[in-house]
Write a structure and sequence with these properties.
The structure holds 2 protein chains of 2 kinds. Chain A is mainly alpha-helical. In chain A, 71% of the residues lie in helices and 1% in strands. Chain A has one domain: Orthogonal Bundle (ABC transporter involved in vitamin B12 uptake, BtuC). The relative contact order of chain A is 0.15. Chain B is built from 11 helices and 4 strands; from the N terminus they run ααααβαββαααβααα. The chains are: A mainly alpha, B mainly alpha.
Amino acid sequence: MTTSRIVKPVALAAVAVLLALVPYTWFPGFGLLPDYTGAAGSLSLLSKVMIMAALAVTFDLLLGQSGLMSFGHVLYFGVGAYAFAMLLAYTSLTFWVAAALTVLLTAGLSLLLSLVALRVENIAYSMVTLAFAQVGAVAVARNYFGTGGESGLRLPTEKIPALFVGLQNTPNVYWFSLATLAVVVTAAALVVRSRFGLSLRGTRDNALRMRVLGYNVYGLRLAVSVVASTLAGLCGVAYVVTIGGTDPDAVGLMLALSLIFMVVIGGSGSLVGAAIGGTVYAFLDMRLPAVGDGLDAGSVPPLVAHLLGEPDLLLGVIFLIVVFVAPKGIVGIAEAAVAKVRARRAGPLRVVLEEDFR
Amino acid sequence: MDTFFLILATGLSVGALYYLLASGLSLIFGLMDVLSFAHGALLTFSAYSAIMTMNWFGAASTGALLAAIVVSTLVGGAVAFLVEWLFLRPMYARGHLSQLLVTMGIGLVLIAAVTIGFGPDPRSMPLPDNVSGSIDVFGVLIPVSALVTVAAALLLHAGLMAFLRRTRHGLIVRAGVENADMVRGLGIDVAKSFAMVFTIGGLAAGLAGALALVYVRAGTPHLGDTYLIYAFIVIVIGGIGSLPGTLIAAALVGLSQQFANHYLTGGAGDLLVLALLALMLLARPQGLFGKTGRIV
């Protein structure tokens, strides 16, 4: 346990450094990426993947750590994206001021809505959060407050700092997404490792017992909701920077369900698992159709290309397999494998006798 | 005044569709605490079978429409039966979250299958003239489709109530909704009732699929999504496990949605319904007819 408190951050930092070096590399993409690793197309795809991974990590704070099955977490991602884009498009605020204000706004909104939603528990909580997220989706789809409706909102180019504009600056956008991921993972890890995180897992496993022990379960949940939502708002800002605007997919039930898929595929209750799940999901979602298009017409049966073109089918099947066969997700599989290797290395169990201590 | 009655009719008609989906969901949730996300996809899947039936008949006659409605209902029931048997039953020992996740996965797969088979664009539903028109009821023109959906919902409600009140299976379901553990303790196999209730829910979703097409006249792969969300809202407002509550809540939600959308602004109805839900959960978390402590 004590070693993992040091090993894990070091390993994560190493991964971050490796990811930061990707724009300088020129490896082939092997179908996983649209181009060589350092090319603009690949970096832009990787930026989106990292944002999805970060968003999955924020959701794990709710679902995995606190047992809060929120269907409304996407609302804060969407509000982060839309508030930021709208502040830039309709006011004279500068980029960084708008970003800071957006994150504050998300925090405030989350505090207000969570005060209400957390008054109920279990499925009722899921329903209220779903309803709140639906309000956001309706507002976006119907083009209320100038959200741009179905077509989304483009950012005015002159409002974006020059370092994020243009094809040659894609590495900067990539690093911005990586920085967002790093901030989110660090913040979430601090929460998970603190007494606060421990209490959260307590409320997840047995809320009644925590109440009896004198913990303020409502307050704990409120706090984690605000933290997770604020981080999701940050992800929304990074999303806008990456795609140069917003699209209505950023709010809505589909993304809410996708978030659950990500956390479950990766391994609910583990931040690294959530990040892995988000990465796997985003890759499958974005790359399967492209792989289907790239295949020669004739070389594979049309049905295969068809199946790849509709990633939801494969995603759904993978998801069902994970739920049935490996309910603890990718991280659970890895941990089981490690435990097996360790058990083999340790040799057969031996009964400890009293003589051993003489 | 004509507009008022027209909106009244469409509101009740939308409410009827919500009820068709919500009644099954409410019983399923009441009995086994499973919130099925697959029912929206079931609605869509069966709706496409209705379109296929209509196209197979060629001419849009009333007989063909009746056949399409029957096919759609049966497809919904059959798929629900298979889903419960193959995917949900192995999950009973694993807790509610796994069951919820399974229904989500099934929903995703079903919708993707529809998209692969029929493409993402809307497919129109041919309707016979006597159904797509309106008829004169006491001097007010009412769309026939509205009458059909409302009649179907009322018939289903009457049927379900008779089943629950008059049959032995219904008795077990009612007792199971009240306290599933106690029924199990008495040596009755609640899982068997659950399979039945899940299939009934599927039949109702299939019926809703065909009737939704009669109402909106075209199917898309995401036809069921919106209905599912509002069905969830309806069961929470009505009180989970209470069919009369679900019926009243469905009418309430359908009417407030349509009236606000027409007399205020487009989309206002959706927001009003969501506000209703939030208020209901804060003031009376158990819903209109639910019992305290059942869902919280």
